Amino acid sequence: MTKIIEGKLDARGIKLGIIVSRFNNFITEKLLDGALEGLKSHGGEDDDITVVRVPGAFEIPLLAERMAASGKYDALVCLGAVIRGDTPHFEYVSDAVTRGIGEAISRYRIPIGFGVLTTNNVEQAMERSGSKDANKGYEAALTAVEMINVIRQLPE
């Protein structure tokens, strides 16, 4: 018989670190609210959640590396908003953040929910930071929870 392993959306007992950028905080605070709502509505407790604020999205990977290396967290969630402007800055920051978070996942084998928006304009960012299912912070937090629960079912 085929064995199916599937994660549950149960945040009880999961130690989670959330890294959130202050830049574009009118968006990132909504992402953070969504992530916290997702965790708490699925059994997460305040004592198991640590929120760390960084200046901008570019700084997220450094903290993801440090927090993953600490061994204090079962999973991380990274939240930020990079909105396209008139210069190539958008591409450089988006690429560096994505690559840095991916490297932390590979190096430390820890799930990291990716809630860093990369949008063409403010309107798109607002749409992706709405309520529940329309909030990428909510989605990133629940992705981290599900991944932890899948990993816990796999043999070492």
Model description:
Strands 2-1-3-4 form a 4-stranded parallel β-sheet, sandwiched between helices. It contains 5 helices and 4 strands. It is globular, with a radius of gyration of 15 Å. It has a single domain, classed as 3-Layer(aba) Sandwich (Rossmann fold). Helix 1 links the parallel strand 1 and strand 2. By secondary structure, the protein is of the alpha/beta class.
Strand and helix order: EHEHEHEHH
Architecture per CATH nomenclature, i.e. the level-2 architecture: 3-Layer(aba) Sandwich
- Estimate the mean pLDDT confidence: 95
| CATH topology assignment | Rossmann fold
**How many extended strands?**
4
Strand percentage: 15-25%
Strand order of the largest sheet: 2-1-3-4
Biggest pleated-sheet summary: 4 strands, parallel
Give the CATH H-level superfamily. Answer: Lumazine/riboflavin synthase
What is the C-level CATH assignment?
Answer: Alpha Beta
- Alpha-carbon distance between the two ends: 22 Å
Using brief descriptors, characterize the structure shown.
single chain, 156 residues, alpha/beta, Rossmann fold, 4-stranded parallel sheet, 4 strands, 44% helix, 19% strand
